[in-house]
């Protein structure tokens, strides 16, 4: 089969897009940037971190209503893999592809540090390289990462300590089909030991391996 | 077509924590000794809209709220004509 392909959606105000592209290429993806007017031609779609549209109105609210939103929804319906990191998670929630809401950290501060996380679900396409219950370290960098639960969700990673006031210490969730993964920590910033942790590498390796084993969804 | 003006008042639902409001309340209490017992910080949107009637204008404003301006998961809103 052909090399799995990843596309990173660059919104106006995205600032982790290059790290995400690097991480995808690092594990073997054929990877490229696309913008809000592009068509999707990928096995993995990455919504990167940043401050899309300056986070005006609400975090991720404007980006979630751009022309590419419907294409992302169709891609999800075709069982394509989507990972939303930080602002990307906020966009997925605003799009309604993931449940709940992301509000300001309970202490009102922007948090930028490496945190410890526990992997609760290693049966997703994004976490097969982890052990269930494994503790990993990933950086966070957000002002609005407090996850508010509005229904039962599939928690994939949770904080070991209460860093931002999230319900049930939730740091990342998937949809019911487990092909849409949103998380506030930044796996793409933790792919080499020199960065302080390489635990994030396995998120991208898991997705790459899943696509190699199960076939991609490119039309 | 006539122009109509509205104010939309957007607030967090009462069960949603509001760290900005809490911080402002604390400063009023501690630094100015003003005995504020509750403070919630919301948003106010002032807009002008063209429509054939006030009723149609109001319907469009409500649509704008539900589609974009308000996240009904965590926020409530009130529209009033000015």
Structure description:
The complex is a heterodimer of chains A (219) and B (82). Chain A has 219 residues and is an alpha/beta fold. Chain A is built from four helices and eleven strands; from the N terminus they run βαββαβαβββββββα. Chain A has a single domain, classed as Rossmann fold. Chain A is 20% helix and 26% strand. In chain A, the strands form two sheets. In chain A, strands 2-1-3-4-11-10-9-6-7 form a nine-stranded mixed β-sheet, with helices on both faces. A two-stranded antiparallel ribbon of chain A has the order 5-8. By secondary structure, chain B is an alpha+beta fold. Chain B contains two helices and three strands. A three-stranded antiparallel β-sheet of chain B has the order 2-1-3. Chain B starts with a strand and ends with a strand. Chains A and B meet through loops of A and helix 1 and helix 2 of B.
- Average per-residue pLDDT of chain A, rounded, comes to 96
The oligomeric status of these chains comes to heterodimer
Structural class of chain A: alpha/beta
Lateral arrangement of strands in the main beta sheet of chain B: 2-1-3
How confident overall, as mean pLDDT of chain B? 96
Q: How many separate domains make up the residues of chain A?
A: 1
Count of DSSP-assigned helices of chain A: 4
The name of the CATH topology of chain B is Mth169, Chain: A
Largest interface: A-B, 17 and 13 residues
Q: CATH homologous superfamily of chain A - what is it?
A: Class I glutamine amidotransferase (GATase) domain
Q: Report the CATH topology name of chain A.
A: Rossmann fold
CATH class categorisation of chain B: Alpha Beta
How many structural domains in the coordinates of chain B?
Answer: 1
Helix content of chain A: 10-25%
Strand order of the largest sheet of chain A: 2-1-3-4-11-10-9-6-7
CATH architecture verdict of chain B: 2-Layer Sandwich
């Amino acid at each position: 089969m052909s090399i799995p392909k990843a596309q990173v959606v660059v919104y106006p105000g995205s600032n982790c897009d290059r790290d995400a592209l690097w991480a995808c290429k690092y594990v073997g993806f054929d990877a490229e940037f696309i913008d809000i007017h592009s068509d999707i031609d990928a096995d993995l779609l990455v919504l990167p971190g940043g401050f899309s549209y300056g986070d005006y109105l609400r975090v991720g609210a404007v980006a979630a209503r751009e022309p590419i939103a419907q294409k992302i929804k169709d891609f999800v319906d075709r069982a394509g893999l989507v990972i939303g990191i930080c602002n990307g998670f906020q966009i997925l929630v605003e799009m309604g592809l993931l449940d709940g809401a992301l509000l300001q950290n309970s202490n009102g501060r922007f948090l930028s540090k490496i945190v410890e996380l526990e992997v609760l679900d290693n049966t997703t396409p994004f976490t097969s390289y982890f052990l269930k219950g494994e503790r990993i370290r990933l950086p966070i960098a957000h002002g609005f990462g407090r996850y508010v639960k509005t229904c039962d969700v599939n928690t994939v990673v949770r904080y070991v300590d209460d860093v931002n006031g999230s319900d049930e210490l939730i740091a990342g969730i998937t949809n019911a089909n487990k092909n849409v993964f949103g998380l506030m920590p930044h796996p793409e910033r933790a792919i080499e030991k020199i960065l302080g942790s390489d635990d994030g590498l396995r998120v991208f390796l898991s997705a790459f391996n899943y696509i190699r084993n199960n076939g991609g969804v490119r039309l | 077509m006539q122009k109509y003006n509205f104010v939309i008042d957007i607030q967090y639902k009462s069960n949603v924590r509001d760290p900005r409001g809490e911080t402002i309340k604390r400063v009023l209490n501690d630094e100015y000794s003003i005995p504020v017992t509750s403070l919630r910080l919301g948003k106010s949107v002032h807009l002008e809209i063209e429509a054939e009637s006030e009723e149609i204008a109001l319907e469009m404003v409500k649509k704008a709220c539900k589609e974009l301006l308000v996240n009904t998961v965590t926020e409530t809103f009130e529209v009033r004509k000015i």
